[in-house]
Amino acid sequence: LFDLDLATGxxxxxxxxxxxxxxxxxxxxxGLERRPDPAREWELWRSRGDLARxxxxxxxxxxxxxxxxxxxxxxxxxxxxAESRLLxxxxxxxxxxxxTARDLLADGRDEAFGGRFRTRLSAALLRGAAExxxxxxxxxxLELNDARRMCRPGSPPDLVARIxxxxxxxxxxxxxxxxxxxxxxxxxxxAPE
Length: 193
Hints:
By secondary structure, the chain is mostly helical. It contains ten helices and no strands.
């Protein structure tokens, strides 16, 4: 029943039925307590964090993603550790905890954020976004240029567009309107409809 309750919680959360989603995740947790499974425990906490972000509760999301990070580090799972760091970073950025998010991303740099390209590109993007939100625009552009260099013709368009959007924000804040317009135009040309 764990899988059914977890899937139900995720589905209901995406539908905006937050109370019912939380109830389904609670049932999934009860099932998990009866039959422990560390891999599924990570999935449960990730789903709890995702639900909290949908409810606009970044503090609860960060707590859930922190639990994911502890679980994945404890099991030595590099890809899930990297994913957990990114999720936690996003929740910290939602809270306005830019320095903490930046430090968390710097901590994971040595691990290369696992082997998945999307994860590495997301990490570079989030480092740049954290610098933009912290008002460190030159540093942001350095990070975002690193992310741009990673991009290839088949790179995920949502990430490429976000890189350009954040670069546009940094250029605009630095009083560089031509560069900002160029980045915004690139983002608009890439952005999925």
